[in-house]
Amino acid sequence: MPIRILVVDPHEITRAGIGLACQSREDLKIVGEVDSIDEAVLLTPETNPNVVVMDPRSCAGDGLEELLRYRNAFPAIKILAFTGNENPAFAKDVVECGVDGFLIKDASADELCWAIRTIHAGRIFISHSHHGVSSPQHEKTVDSNIQKRDANALEHPNHLAMENNPDAQIDLSTREREVLALIADGMTNKQAAAKLFLSVKTVETYRARVMRKHQLKDRSDLVRFAKRHASKTLELQPTG
Question: Which UniProt keywords apply (predicted)?
Answer without folding.
Answer: DNA-binding, Phosphoprotein
